[in-house]
Design goal:
- By secondary structure, the chain is an alpha/beta fold.
- Helices cover 23% and strands 27% of the residues.
- It is built from four helices and six strands, in the order H-E-H-H-E-E-E-E-E-H.
- The longest helix is centred in the last third of the chain and has 12 residues.
- The chain starts with a helix and ends with a helix.
Amino acid sequence: MQELKEQYYGSFRCGFEVEKIAELSREQFEKFSSELYEFYRFLYDNRDAMYMDPGDRNMHCILVTTSEYREGILVESEGYPYPRYAAFVADCRRIDLEGKEVLEQVDMSSTLPTETEVKKKNERTESR
């Protein structure tokens, strides 16, 4: 987390668009911010909301925050169940979040679906 709070300049800068908001409890946020390299089911389940759009050079991401703090972490996972790219936000009130989807359930577990579960889900989707 300390590395995220350091300021970077130049080629590290790019725009971002918050696609979804994951609002955690204080305890969950502290765990998440201290264990950024862990697997998180909610990142895996929402991997389609996190990507880099080469046309506009914006990272589309999830804002991980808590109602008890003003700070947050922007996460772009590139399809992985952990934060592949992350940025610290000192005050989330400075971001326009109007109309953004707030995740109803944030599964902090590291349990990912098995290959069989993923295959069944894909088969259900393809049969529609």
